[in-house]
Design a protein that fits this description.
Rossmann fold; five-stranded mixed β-sheet; three-stranded mixed β-sheet; 10 strands
């Protein structure tokens, strides 16, 4: 069907919705135009627009998925008119299928992702059938992980082996390194594109072979209905001898080489490694983290009884038990930094960052420990060397990652859950109100801090010990000139301070 469009219009989809059918197919044509294939830099990658594709980003560092710029440009040229046509089809309760030939295939992928982004929760999702070899690897690894965390969809590919990327990734999966490939990587840029979605292959005997792990597609080439699911890749034999009858027949139909089988096994082993790492965190790290957090909770209670509060007590380090609190802070940083390294190396399941238990544990850690990190930062006057704590490159990544998890889970805008940085804002504004006078910009920041303080105390994400008479915040806030306290929220702050007294 995609071929029907080749001789016709190249830039608009070809809809095929027969009256008796419950399915409408949108077919996208290939193109011979250079601009529809080539874009700069070498691999033509560009960032996905977060307006049309808000879900295609990594949860931790907000890294946006990359896609071939020419394919994205072609999709953007038709997406408004396409959206109207698809909306009419969905209104008729029909299933939508996207397909494409040659350079039309990646446009079909983008159309599917766009529709999934805009679909209502109870709306049936489209299936994208993509019928061209090079088009299945149009996006970066961020697209793979965010796709797994999004709505389920099927992409049907017939593809060829992407040798350099395939061999390099296969070596990573198998835990080995080839010196030649490592050397080449230093001066040859590898393609950023990776496959994603569920792959369905047609074997010569008429079977459908389903692979739900898209990493496997980097390592194998397949030939051409019964359905066989190759889910437990690590259990596949190196040869087809001795495997269960159905799988044995399927492997023979696909004609996989020994090297291809090894690569499939490596992909499966990688998934097992991710699961083992997650189990290690749940069964080992979780208990240890909670134990250290309990110690810090007791430290917080002691600090409050002394009238200083959690932050100021740690910053001054006048009590002996502050040393033990610092030990707990460093131990916890070690656990979370190790987890962050696992995430960046893709050694944890994609679902890890969306786990309710993980988000809860991370949020407890961030709210408990980051104030201590900030206290240590300003105690040693590190702001004189690096500037404001919250600026990029200064605040530890572990806190930014964990904050992003919570904001994503609550569907809140980026930066809205920054209560653990309250003391950094206070320290920064203390300096600026002394040096910059009452500039409108500084005044607005002070007013915003007061509003945030009320909100965070009300939802209990910030402790009331910040309102103690001898706290850094109260000592700074009380003497502020009236122009900083003109908003109604400011009077509420003063009322809370008096109540705490």
């Amino acid at each position: 069907m995609a071929n029907k469009t080749i001789g016709g219009c190249v830039r608009t989809p070809y809809p095929d919705g027969r009256k008796a059918s419950t399915v409408t197919v949108f077919a996208f044509a290939g193109s011979w135009l250079p601009d529809d294939w080539c874009a700069q830099p070498p691999f033509g990658e560009t960032k996905m627009g977060t307006c049309n594709f808000p879900s295609l980003k990594s949860l931790g560092d907000d890294g946006v998925a990359l896609v071939n710029g020419s394919f994205l440009r072609r999709f953007n040229a038709i997406h408004s008119s396409l959206a109207k046509k698809v909306k009419k089809v969905i209104a008729k309760k029909k299933q939508v299928v996207f397909t494409g030939y040659s350079s039309g295939a990646p446009v079909a992928i983008l159309a599917t992702l766009y529709l999934l982004e805009k679909s209502e929760p109870n709306q049936s999702h489209p299936t994208a059938s993509l019928l061209d070899p090079p088009s299945s690897v149009i996006g970066s690894s961020v697209m793979l992980s965010s796709g797994r965390n999004g709505p389920t969809t099927s992409f049907i590919f017939v593809m060829r082996n992407a040798s350099m990327v395939a061999n390099y990734d296969a070596c990573n999966f198998m835990g080995c390194r080839i010196p030649t490939l490592e050397t080449l990587r230093n001066f040859i840029e590898l393609s950023p594109y990776r496959p994603f979605g569920t792959y369905i292959f047609y074997s010569g005997s008429g079977k459908l072979v389903v692979v739900r792990n898209p990493n496997a597609e980097l390592q194998k080439s397949l030939g051409k209905q019964n359905v066989v699911y190759l889910d437990h890749l690590e259990e596949l034999p190196v040869s087809s001898d001795g495997s269960p009858a159905t799988v044995n027949t399927t492997l023979n139909d696909l004609g996989l080489s020994t090297q291809a089988m090894l690569c499939l096994q490596a992909t499966g082993e990688l998934e097992k490694l991710k699961s083992r790492n997650q189990d290690k965190i749940i069964n080992d790290y979780k208990q240890k983290i909670e134990g250290e957090l309990r110690k810090l909770s007791k430290y917080k209670e002691k600090a409050e009884t002394c009238g200083l509060g959690y932050y100021d007590s740690f910053k001054l380090q006048e009590k002996e038990y502050g040393f033990q609190a610092n030990v707990s802070r460093l131990v916890l940083a070690g656990y979370w930094d190790e987890m962050m390294e696992m995430l960046k190396a893709y050694k944890l399941p994609d679902e890890f960052e969306k786990s309710h238990d993980c988000i809860r544990l991370g949020t407890d850690y961030r709210r408990t420990v980051e104030p201590l990190d900030i206290a240590n930062f300003y105690r040693h006057a590190k702001d004189e060397e690096t500037g404001f704590y919250v600026k990029k490159g200064t605040r530890p990544k572990r806190y930014r990652y964990i904050q992003n998890w919570l904001e994503h889970a609550e569907k809140k805008p980026s930066g809205s859950r920054s209560e653990s940085c309250f003391w950094a804002e206070v320290e920064d504004l203390r300096i600026k109100t002394r040096s910059n006078g009452s500039s409108p910009k500084i005044k607005q920041k002070v007013l915003q801090l007061g509003q945030n303080l009320i909100k965070w105390i009300d939802d209990e994400s910030l402790g009331k010990d910040v309102l103690l008479e001898n706290s850094t915040f109260v000592k700074w806030w009380k003497p502020l000139p009236p122009e900083y306290k003109s908003e109604p929220k400011s009077s509420r702050v003063m009322k809370l301070i008096h109540e705490k007294d």
